[in-house]
Give the backbone structure.
Amino acid sequence: MNPNLYLWMIPLLPLTGAAVNGLLGRRFSKKTVAGVALFFSGTAFLLALRVLLSYSSLTLPYVEPGISWIRSGEFHVNFAFYLDQLSLLMLMVVTGVGFLIHIYSVGYMWDDDGFYRFFSYLNLFMFFMLMLILANNYLVMFIGWEGVGLASYLLIGFYFLKDSAAAAGKKAFITNRIGDLGFLIALFLMVQHFGSLDFQRVAAGVAQLPAEVAGAGVLTAIGILLMVGAAGKSAQLPLYVWLPDAMEGPTPVSALIHAATMVTAGVYMVSRSHVIFDKAPTALLVVAIVGTLTALFAATIGIAQTDIKKVLAYSTVSQLGYMFMACGVAAYSAGVFHLMTHAFFKGLLFLGSGSVIHALSGEQDMRQMGGLRKKIPWTFWTMAIGTVAIAGIWPLSGFHSKDEILWKAYSQGPSKMIWALGVLTAFITSFYMFRLLFMTFFGDYRGSLESGDQGHDAHGPDLGHGHGHGGIHESPALMLVPLVILAALSLGGGYIPALKFLAPVFQTESSIGHTGAIATSEPALEESADKGTERFLQFVSVGVALLGAFLAWLLYLKSPYLPAQIAAWAGGLYRTVSNKYYVDEIYNWALIVPLLAMSRKWLWKGVDQDFIDTVINDSADATADTGGVLRRMQSGNLRSYAAWLTAGGAVVLAYMVWLGVH
Amino acid sequence: MVPLSYYLVLSAILFACGVLGFLLKRNIITIFMSIELMLNGVNLSFVAFASQWHALSGQIFVFFVMVVAAAEAAVGLAIIISVYRTRDTLNVDRVDLLKL
């Protein structure tokens, strides 16, 4: 028997925090606001930890019966919570990394006027993310799904007085709507075919259907539509465009929402729906292709970016592509494993970049950095760990998860191309990340901010040093502690036995190959050969990572004049890449301009003004005219009312008499 | 025994007087009294019918009407006093603010 886990309290705590800070925060001191936010996100983390600690005594999956929400004939939806290894792992990532980023934000946002607003939104985000993870059915999951989109919108547009931030917020929201439409239609199809949105009942319904090996059926449709939703939320091709722009938000937001947690919701959703994908190889293939192409595409853009956060943003898109690649070859646990390690090292890298930006008083252009290694050593060392981890160099966490994905792509993927592109992406990833590291921390300082000659007081509370110290400076302890913890997790996170932990959730994955047929098992003999291949592939992936790092060293440290020459030599290609392949321009020209023109000319002037407005105005006019005639009765003269009254009485009387006569 | 029709004719005359006063008079107190007159005209036919058919319900009805009329008189007179205090007149034709 399971102990009472109080799952419902885990999302409710951050919601309370959001409400308290949102409604009363304006009157609170900054310390109180920070205390409220940290208390509620921290207790949520403690409750999650309590669940994890009682793991051995749990029988999973565990369903916490909630309250009934929708009841309509056979169809009903409950606000119930569901816990299995997958959601437990996500729970730890979201509450753990979320809490660390809350701590960091106290230091980072200390001088911001919107301090209470920021923490209210951040707690609100935690609430919706936890709803998404702990939901027992797709509809409650969808609430969380939409809610994190809302929180993301609010936080991207946090500096809403800045046009670009407001526009980026809208872009994120609208792009997500496109994906959400796909998700929603997938939900309708589930209701139609399975009569329920409950995870377990949908899975039972799917089990009744045959695998759609040849040809596409309802499962393929649901799978592809779910992937459309995931592509919106998790910034995959062709809907990834919002994520780089989302970097307009404060850096802790980029770390929490746009790297560690929210953008991985798509991966979580696809993994959660693995029973559907297992039986729809076409949909699975779509996932694999989208993931692989996104990983490669975004990585190439990352090479030519100069804004430190933009590099990390494209890197996030690329790493999310890896996770979908893993899901696409039915290696869901590898994808979720990468999700977890990515949350550690990308959260770390973003927080580190925030610390760099903080040190340089808001400078984000890597061309204005350099040589910061000595000046901000803590930031440097933690970011170096993050870089090595994301590059996938043994024994850091990125190696374990990325290698698992590449191995699964090789061994059970539909084509070796996926593996090859994955390795190529790993090479590029290593290159641009070391480029970032070298440009930021090595060489000579290229910016204008001098040590000690510029007053600067952007730092957090309770920190050993007072205000008014100058120039480039290390961040306060409040910001460094989360960095160090995340660095430790990036170092050792690969040894967390997540694959084994997740195995019960994805029991079917190993037995069902990409063709949808049950893989013929010839274990013993193949096993040792597989081990050899796997070991060889590990060397390959570490090799390309080192090669990428070497290339970055060559170009950005050894001979720093080379990149400019290469850029000049590659001319058009370089411009194309540094302009992000002109995707935004293409979307603008192909979709937004026609859409706006149609809305203006046809929907606005045609439908709205000529039709809807005319109908409404005419009926309003008719009512007013009638009223104008009738209001003459209201003379204000008491005796005229009396006359009307008597006349009315007389008419009634006459009618009664007339009835009596007849 | 007075025939029923006598009572009814008297009742109709009382009611008609009330209606005429209600329509023609300008003094608000006179109008008020006219309304009372109409009510009593109706009361008279109630009791006449009750006596004719030996049914008590008509009598009881009259008591109800009287109680309501008394309550109405209390409220109505209070309103009249209030109108007089603010408008300095009891002429209903000059109390005509309630219009567009």
About this structure: Confidence is low (pLDDT under 50) at residues 452-469, 509-525 of chain A. Chain A has 25 helices and two strands. The longest strand of chain A covers residues 62-72.
